[in-house]
Design goal:
Length: 190
């Protein structure tokens, strides 16, 4: 959502709206959830800002998983889904290039991706904080390539072990450089 007060405002508004959308209205399709969240966020913020549009936006990914069919449904607003198959094969499912927020001329339509999963496959959603972190020998960004590499390299570990390996690798990359953003990585094994 960005930094400071605008980021905090968007985060708290999103956190408040999501249960209303999913539990209150029974909307469970990821694309529909994102569409409703965007509509409600814009409606809420327009009441607070008058006719002016708040230009900040939120990145978010939503996953549903059907245990019977073993299918994952994913939609993302500037947020990809990473999958590491049990075999170690890496897949990236890109989200739409639309934030949850105001963008001039953008219609409210999010893509839905239906992905077959197999036992042992893992799905990951991450904030951009890991990829944007400076560090390493040249003081450059870690980038998504660094995250993707560590996800594949550690996929054979149990979830706890993998989490520790990822954290250690990230901290080694960061070194003495201050952390510049929030860092969130969520992983789910099928």
């Amino acid at each position: 959502t960005g930094h400071g007060v605008p980021g905090a405002l968007l985060s708290m508004t999103g956190i408040t709206l999501l249960p209303q959308i999913v539990t209150g209205r029974g909307i469970t399709g990821p694309a529909e959830i994102l569409g409703e969240l965007r509509d409600e966020l814009l409606r809420t913020l327009s009441h607070q800002e008058g006719d002016e549009h708040v230009r900040d936006g939120m990145n978010i990914g939503v996953i549903t998983y059907d245990k019977i069919t073993r299918e994952c449904e994913f939609s993302g607003a500037l947020c990809p889904l990473y999958i590491v198959r049990r075999s170690g094969l890496f897949e990236e499912v890109k989200g739409d290039r639309i934030p949850i927020g105001f963008v001039e001329g953008v219609v409210n339509s999010f893509s839905s991706h239906l992905i077959p999963m197999e036992e042992g496959d893992r799905m990951y959603l991450a904030s951009d904080g890991m990829a944007d972190q400076f560090g390493g020998p040249m003081g450059k960004k870690w980038k998504t390539s660094g995250l993707k590499e560590v996800l594949v390299r550690t996929h054979g570990r149990n979830a706890c072990g993998q989490g520790k390996d990822i954290e250690r690798t990230f901290m080694e990359w960061t070194g003495t450089v201050d952390q510049i953003d929030d860092v969130l990585l969520v992983g789910v094994q099928v």
